[in-house]
Amino acid sequence: MSSAIKRHHIDLLDEPVLPINKRGTEILRDPLLNKGTGFPDSERDELGIRGLVPPQVVSIDDQVQRVMDNYRRKTNDLERYIHLEALHDRNETLYYRVLLEHIDELTPIIYTPVVGQACQYFGHIYRRTRGMYFASSNRGYFKEMVNNWPEDEIDIIVITDGSRILGLGDLGSNGMGIPIGKLSLYVACAGIYPCKTLPVMLDVGTNNHDLQNDILYLGEKHNRLTGREFDEMVEEFVNAVTKRWPKVLIQFEDFTNDHAFPLLERYRNRNLCFNDDIQGTGAVALAGILSALRVTGQSLSEQRFIFLGAGSAAVGIADMIVSGMVEEGLCENEARKQFWLFDSQGLVTQNRIDKLAVHKIPYAQSSKSIDSLLEVVRQVKPTALIGVSKQAGAFTEEVIKEMQSHVRRPLIMALSNPTSKSECTAEQAFKWTAGKVLFASGSPFAPVTIEGKVYVPGQGNNMYIFPGVGLGAVSCHSRSVTDSMFYVAAKTLSELVTREELEVGKLYPDLKTIREISSQIAAAVCKVAFEEGLAQIERPENMLEYVKERMYQPHYVPYKAV
Ligand code: NAD
Q: Is the CB–ligand 1 distance for residue 390 below 6 Å?
C-alpha cells in the first residue's frame, strides 16, 4: 500500500459526511459521486440505490483490482486509454485511486505518448463529453456559455487550440485529449480536486484537411482563424472565465509557437497563467541540470550549452537556465552568451536576424554561420548538449565523442518525444562515453548495463513540475505565476533526488513519490508568492502542512441524504 493511500485511511477517521440532495440513478450517473458497487448498505438504503447495483458491497481496493485485471486484458494501448477514460467518466474517485496506485504504468497511457494516438482518433472513439468547447461559431456568447458549467469553483483550466498536439501537428478539436490528460495529472500528482478542474478546447478551426473531410470529426470544419480574429477569441475566452472564476489558473497548452510566446507575454502579468510547453519544460530540464551539477560539483554559470532545436522547448529551457544563472550573480546578457542554439537552418546567429522568429533573437550569437552540429561542438566545447529538435539519431557517436574529448562528465539531454524521435538512446549515450555521461531523456528508456554496472536514465517528464506549481499558485491565490516560481520548483525537484539515485545516474526522483514532490514544490512556490507580494491569503505558519491539507485524496467519503 503506497504512503499516499495509507494517508487516506487516516484522513477517513475524521472525514466529514457529504450531504447529497440526489437519489438513485442520478448519483450513479454522476462520476464525481458514483461509488458503483462500493456503496455501503446504509447508503444504498438512504439514497435509493438498493437494487440498482449488484448486492455485493465491494471495497475500493477490490474495485481497483478489477479495473487493473480488465486493463491488462486489453490488447492495445488505444483500448487501454478508452478503458481508463470510460472509468474516468463513470467513477472519478476510483479512476484517481487506480491512477495514483499505478502511476508509472498508467501515465504513458493517459498522457504522452498514448494520448497522442487518442487525439488522432478522438472523433472516432468519442463516448461522452468532458470539459468545455469554445468554438469560433460561438463568438460573442462566451460569457453566457461559461455559466453552463455546473461548478461554482474552478481552480485550474487547461486550454489548447489543438494546433500542435505533441509532435503530431494540427489536430484541431481532437486536441481536447490533452487538457483532459493534463488535468488528470493535476489531480493524481498534486491533489487538485477533480470538480475544480476544467479542460477547454478553443476551437478556432483546423488547417488539417483530412480532419475537415472526416465525417466523424467533431470540430469546426474551416481553416484556422488567425491574427486579430484569433487574438479577440482568446481575449473573449479569458474575460469570460475570469469573470466567473476570478482566481482561476489558466494553463496554455500545445499552441503553435507563433501564438504560444505572444499569449504568454500578453497574459502573464495580467492573469494567473503559464505555458507548460515553455515554462514547465524549462523548469524540468533545469532540475535535471541542477541534479547533474550536484554530481560534478560545478556551478550553473560555468556551463556552456548547445541546443539542437530552437523551438518553444529550447527557448523555454534556455530562459529558465538564464534565470538560474542570474540567481548565481550573472547578468542576463552575460548568461545568454553561454548558449548556442542550432535549428533546421544551422546555428542561430546575428547574420540571420532579419528572418529569425522573435523568441530566438535573444540567443543569436555574433559568430559566423555554421551548418554542422559537429563543427559547433568542436568550436564551443559544450559542457551540456540539449536535444529538442525531433531529429532521431542527431547526436551521433562522433558528436558525443567530440564532446567528451573536452569534458569528463558530459551532460546530454535527448528530450525529443516520442522515443522514436530521441536524438540518441540512453544505451548509446552511456556506451559511447563508457558510463561517464549524465543523461536524461524526454521519453523513458530502460536501464543500461556497462561492465556490470547498471545505469538508470532519468526521464525529464513535465509532470514533475506543472502540478506542483499549479497547486502552489492556487493554494495561496497568487496573482500571477513568475519565473522565480519555476526556478524554485526546479531547485526543489533536484534537491529531492537522493544520493543513491544520483549514484546510478538518475537525475530525477522516483515518480512513485510524486505527491510528496508536488507538495514540496507547491510549498516552495507559495513562499515565493509571499516574498513577491503576490499571495492573496493570510500567510500560513507551516506552508507544507497548509498545502498538504488541501490536497484531494481519492477515497470514498461517507454520504448522507438531505
Ligand atoms: P518545436 O516545433 O517548437 O521546435 C522544434 C525545433 O527543432 C525548431 O526550432 C526546428 O527548427 C528544429 N529543427 C527541426 N529540424 C531540425 C534539424 N534537422 N536540425 C536542427 N534543428 C531542427 O517543438 P518543441 O515544442 O520545442 O519540442 C521539441 C521536442 O521536445 C519535441 O519532440 C517535444 O516532444 C520535446 N519536448 C520534451 C519535453 C520534455 O522532455 N519534458 C518537454 C517539451 C518538449
A: yes
Per-residue pLDDT tens over the stretch 374-430: 999 999 999 999 999 999 999 999 999 999 999 999 999 999 988 889 999 999 999
Residue of 71, 95, 182, 552 marked catalytic: 182
Q: Check pLDDT > 50 for residue 1.
A: no
CA-angle at 138, arms to 137 and 139, nearest 5°: 95
Q: Give ∠ CA 507-276-480 in degrees, rounded to 5.
A: 115
Report the nearest-CA residue for atom 6 of ligand 1. Answer: 309
Closest protein CA for atom 3 of ligand 1: 311
Annotated domain spans of the chain: 59-255, 279-461, 464-480+490-549
The residue type found at 21 is N
Tell me the CA–centroid distance for residue 465 and ligand 1, in Å. Answer: 19
Task: Identify whether 74 is a catalytic site residue.
Answer: no
First to last CA, the chain: 35
* pLDDT single digits (tens) 336-348: 999 999 999 999 9
182 is known as an active-site residue: yes
Distance in Å, CA 476 to ligand 1 centroid? 34
Is cis: bond before 457, omega within 30 of 0? no
Give the model's pLDDT for residue 461. 94
Q: CB-based contacts of 319: which residues, under 8 Å, 6+ apart?
A: 278, 282, 483
Ligand 1 atom at minimum distance from 360 CA: 9
Q: Which residues does residue 274 pair with via DSSP β-bridges, in sequence order?
A: 251
Question: What's the 415 CA to ligand 1 centre distance in angstroms?
Answer: 8
DSSP characters over 241-308:
HHHH-TT-EEEE-S--HHHHHHHHHHHTTTSSEEEIIIIIHHHHHHHHHHHHHHHH---GGG--EEEE
Query: Using omega within 30 degrees of 0 as the cis cutoff, is the peptide bond preceding 108 cis?
Result: no
pLDDT attached to residue 381: 98
Q: Which of 519, 429, 527 is nearest to 484 (CA)?
A: 527
Contact 449, 426 (CB under 8 A): no
277 lines ligand 1 (CB under 6 A): yes
**CA–centroid distance, residue 340 to ligand 1 (Å):** 15
444 ligand 1 Cβ < 6 A: no
**Which residue of 168, 278, 343 sits with most ligand 1 atoms within 8 Å of its CB, as the best mutation to test the pocket?**
343
3-state secondary structure 394-407: CCCHHHHHHHHCCC
Looking up cell 560545478, which residue turns up? 298
For the cut 60, the answer to whether the pLDDT of residue 187 exceeds it is yes
Domain 59-255 has CATH 3.40.50.10380: yes
Q: What is the DSSP letter of 382?
A: -
The CB of 286 under 6 Å from ligand 1? The reply is: no
**pLDDT tens for each residue of 534-550:** 999 999 999 999 999 99
User: Domain 279-461, what fold?
Assistant: Rossmann fold (3.40.50)
| Ligand 1 in reach of 462 Cβ (< 6 A) | yes
pTM above 0.90, yes or no: yes
How many helices, marked H, and strands, marked E, lie in the chain?
Answer: 25, 16
